[in-house]
Amino acid sequence: MRVVVVGATGNVGSSLVRALSAEAGVDSVLGVARRRPELDVPKVEWASADVARDELAPLFSGADAVVHLAWAIQPSRALTALWRTNVAGSQRVFDAVAQAGVPALVYASSVGAYSPGPKDRAVDESWPTGGIPSSFYARHKAEVERRLDRFEREHAGIRVVRLRPGLTFKRSSASGQRRLFAGPLAPRFLARPGLIPFFPDVPRLRFQAVHTEDVAEAYRLAVMGDPRGAFNVAAEPVLDSARLARILDARLVRVPERAMRRVVERDAGEPGPDE
């Protein structure tokens, strides 16, 4: 089996290529990224390509499966550029899969694609994927889900799997994840437990996290097996303000919801002057 991983040098991609390399049923892996990495993994070769502009079908030719992981969330104010990568780039990946005749497509969706839901119970994969209007990340994920719906209708012979993981972390990617979520200027020392004096008490804050290696294993299983459809990937426990404050050894402080909303909206980014 030959597998192409698009976005192969990111948090999940770097773990996935190693998992596929160790898989006896995989003969070769092509890792696709905008910049060729200094990474040597058995059975893995590399190609440089940008999903927003480069030819992709030749890279997919002869593949048994394509895993699409490429996504951008920074710079958060460059919404047009992000849309080209996230939405138009995903469409170009899907079109190239069909053009190259690849029999299986595995797409990295997200729990961020879901419409707002209850905070007191879990929801399954049937929950609507309309995104959250105030988040460009959620809007992009929801739009790609709609485009993938259409792709499945038009290409019924291609096996399509969409995984919807929660927030995904691993220690070796900590610095990159800090830059993505907190911005490039966030002081490194503030991420250490005990150095954050307080944590905001946000009553509706609820989310699940999952280790990158577990998400990579889910993608490996999606490639090697015969599943179709959508699958949530998350881990217990559910994280809230109180649990996060304990993890960070910080004191809970009630913050007005309006103030928190302003911070979130500012950090999520609004269109810049070129949008």
Q: Work out the number of β strands.
A: 11
Terminal residue distance: 43 Å
Radius of gyration: 19 Å
The overall pLDDT average reads: 86
Helix content: 25-40%
Largest sheet: 7 strands, parallel
Strand order of the largest sheet: 3-2-1-4-5-6-10
In DSSP terms (H or I, runs of 4 or more residues), the helix count works out at 8
Structural class: alpha/beta
Succession of helices and strands: EHEEHEHEHEEHEEHEHEH
Summarize the structure.
The chain has 275 residues and is of the alpha/beta class. It has 8 helices and 11 strands.
Can you offer a commentary on this structure?
The structure is a single chain. By secondary structure, the protein is of the alpha/beta class. It has helices at residues 11-21, 57-60, 79-100, 136-154, 174-182, 212-224, 241-248, 257-268, and strands at residues 2-6, 28-33, 44-48, 65-68, 104-108, 159-165, 167-169, 198-201, 209-211, 229-233, 251-254. The chain has a seven-stranded parallel β-sheet with strand order 3-2-1-4-5-6-10, with helices on both faces. Helix 1 (11-21) crosses helix 6 (212-224) and helix 3 (79-100) packs parallel to helix 4 (136-154). It is globular. The protein starts with a strand and ends in a 7-residue tail after the last helix.
